[in-house]
Fold:
Amino acid sequence: MHELPITQSICNLAVQEAERVGATKVYAIRIKMGEYTDYVPVIIQEYFNVVSEGTLAEGAVLEIETVPATLRCRACGAERRMEKFRMKCPACGSREVELLTGREFYIDSMEVETDDGD
Structure:
């Protein structure tokens, strides 16, 4: 259920940006989503289908690209992909790590139609 507010925000932002550039239709919204988030892409698309009804984004497809979770080890300095959501360094086993990527969630780009056919 926590996907609903974020999905409403995606729709609102997409419509606002489309209106700002004079678009008449939003065809696709490309989203970057970190694999360490707990959002479910299929549920986001389903909610989007509902919240976008009657807007410029109605019928738009959400293209969600997953960003891998990566860690930096404070002990050995290694930067590696997180293994199976384990918050420890894959190189040395230290738990003194920080998450570099994997929590992202943002609109990267959109495909829209404008009055001049673009």
